[in-house]
Amino acid sequence: KQWYQRRVVITAGRVENFANQLEHLRVQDAEEYNMVKIKLETDVQVLEQQLQAMRATYQLNSEKLDYNFTVLKKREEENTITKSQQKRKITRLQDTLNNLRMKLTKQERQFRA
Q1: Distance separating alpha carbons of residues 81 and 74, to the nearest angstrom
Q2: What is the value of pTM for the model shown?
Q3: Looking at residues 80-96, what average pLDDT do you find?
Q4: CA–CA gap between residue 86 and residue 92 (Å, rounded)
Q5: Closest CA to 25 of 13, 37, 33
């Protein structure tokens, strides 16, 4: 009977020791869980801020590209008009040059005759 009582006391001590260890592990895990949760929440906030900044940058770049595209289209239209005007001017100057050459040739013939 003594042996049994001693065994019960030892077992009860062990159970209490395991219960203490288990409670310590629970507290430790809860603290670790809370720390990880706080870190992840902070990371999410930082990532959301970065995403918002990237969206703003994207929007700004998109607006700049749209503006630059509009400016380039306008310049292209202006250049097309200028090119057309210059072609007409070249044609007119070539006609004038040809007329002057013909007059020169005519005058040279009259002068020699």
Answers
A1: 11
A2: 0.58
A3: 98
A4: 10
A5: 33
